[in-house]
Amino acid sequence: MIRSTFAGFTMAQQALSANQRAIDVAGQNLSNINTPGYTRQRLDLASISPVGASFSSSVYDNKVGQGVMMKGISQIRDPFLDIQYRNQIAKVGTADAEDQILERLGEIFDETDSAAVREAFNNVITQLKNMANPQDGGASSTDALVRSSFEVLINAIHEKANAVDALEEEMIKKMTDSVIPNINTCLNEIKNLNEEIKNSQILGNPALELQDERNKLLDDLATYLPIEVSYRTDTSGGEPIDLLDVTFRDSAGTKHTLISDTKIGEFHFDGTGGIPVSLEVTDALNPGGGASDITDLIQNGVLKGNIDMLNKAEIFDGTDTKGIGYYRGMFDAFVNKLATVMNDLNGDALFEKSDGSGADQPFTASNIKVSEGWMNGTVSIKKSDGAVGGTGPSTEYKNVQLMINALISDKQVFTVKRPDGADVTVFTGTIQNCYDNIQNVQAIERKASASILKNHLTVLNQISDSRDAVSGVNMDEEVMDLMRYHQSYNAASRLMTTMDEMLDKLINDTGVVGR
User: Fold this and answer.
1) Which domain, by its residues, includes 493?
2) Do both 329 and 424 map to the same domain?
3) Per the domain annotation, does 152 fall within a domain?
């Protein structure tokens, strides 16, 4: 069977078109080599099968394909690496959020390069020792000097308490004004891109650049919480349309749909009542079904890091995270023990609460103050132990020495009542050591947090490098492709020339003999 006379021209023309388009794709890749989030594109080619049998064909026909077909332009992505990257970036989000807050707490409690509570506490001890000095009868330090040193200490305590409160308020404001709006905006932008991609694909455009924008937003969303991304194809309209779903599975195993094609859920944060804060999410598939409380159900991400540091206080509430509440609780325990021990040893109250709370309520770093009696002189430090309910002869200055010992050498048990009513011991040691322990714990937690963050970032960078190796533009590879397609284009041109020469011979020279 003789093939179609011009079939070879069609084959050559298809080869020219395919190689020209492949060069265009390589040029697009090279143009976007520095574009953030750009995914390398490729031209998908397929061989055109030979035509089927006909009445004129025979078993001796050797059929050849009819050239090359351009199936479309696609992106080179590895879905498994995308999953790994987004899972890991959620872990980075958790560690980074916790590390930032621990760094701020370090600025509050670390007194390595500043004079604050520790120096003021040491000055109190110095004044008490001067008062108890038997060599000069305590004349080197008067009651007024001791009271003044305690006022300085309490002012330093108030400053730190205010700083902790300010940090807490700042974090709540950040969640309210920045984090949650950013998440909801991200969801809305992904929804809008879904609509644009769908409309573009209906017209036969793959919308690859829009998909790059969407993937970048999905990576951003994954920093806040762990997400699962799935794709499905809708062919009901004739042209295949890619639809995207984004879900979040909480620690209880419940799946919440954040995005389903052009439907989205929404996050709601409530910090108006202070601590504890709460977080809810509405489901994209059931917006009228009410919001689900996921405050304690997020497994990773910036949301988990921030909420854990705001709501959790470890031993003070039976949770597993030393959040802001832990450091406030330890600081309050230090202040409460300091005030109660001094009041008990003195008999008459040297300290009282500024908020008017009852005697059954503990002192806190925010409400402690020098008592009115001590301020107006009706109360003073009782120097002898006989003055405090003693029946024996008074020993001058011994009570002051008992105060000194209670502050720096006597082991104390620091007990607090948890919200569930349980009494728990949060520290055992001297009052002085209790404050040192706050600083030490913060330093250890910050070091551990920084190490965890560094490790997570190392893994993330490794995954990112692997993903870039697949999806990123490699200049050497693209230049090699340009050379390869250029040579293929030249070969296709040569095929066209050869076919032209063959036809010229057939048309102009065949059958001329005997004319």
Assistant:
1) 7-76+472-505
2) yes
3) yes
Q: Per residue in 296-333, pLDDT tens? A: 999 999 999 999 999 999 888 888 899 999 999 999 99
**Beta strand segments in 325-417, E:** 351-353, 368-370, 412-417
- The SS3 call for residue 497 is helix
Residue finishing a domain among 432, 457, 481: 432
List % helix, strand, coil for the chain (3-state, nearest 5).
55, 15, 30
Tokens representing residue 406 in the block? 């209670």
| Number of structural domains found in the chain | 2
The answer on 480 and 427 residing in a single domain is no
- Give the number of other Cβ atoms within 10 Å of residue 505's Cβ: 10
> How many whole angstroms separate alpha carbon 148 and alpha carbon 158?
15
Q: Which of 126-140, 182-196, 204-218, 250-264 has the lowest mean pLDDT?
A: 126-140
Q: Note whether 148 and 48 are same-domain residues.
A: no
- Asked whether the beta carbons of 414 and 333 are under 8 A apart, the reply is yes
Q: Six-digit token pair at 142?
A: 């008067």
Tell me, yes or no, whether 149 lies in a domain: yes
Q: 206 lies in a domain?
A: no
Integer CA distances (angstroms), 381 to 144, 385, 402, 493, 495, in order: 10, 11, 12, 106, 109
Mean pLDDT of 375-403: 72
| Per-residue model confidence as pLDDT tens digits over 505-515 | 888 877 776 55
Q: Tell whether the model's pLDDT for residue 62 goes beyond 80.
A: no
Name residue 13's amino acid.
Q
Dihedral (CA of 184, 189, 191, 192) sign: positive
d(CA 358, CA 438): 27
Residues in the chain: 515
Report the distance separating Cα 361 and Cα 146, nearest Å.
26
Same domain, 423 and 350: yes
> 339 in a domain, yes or no?
yes
Q: Which of 432, 447, 482 is the last residue of a domain?
A: 432
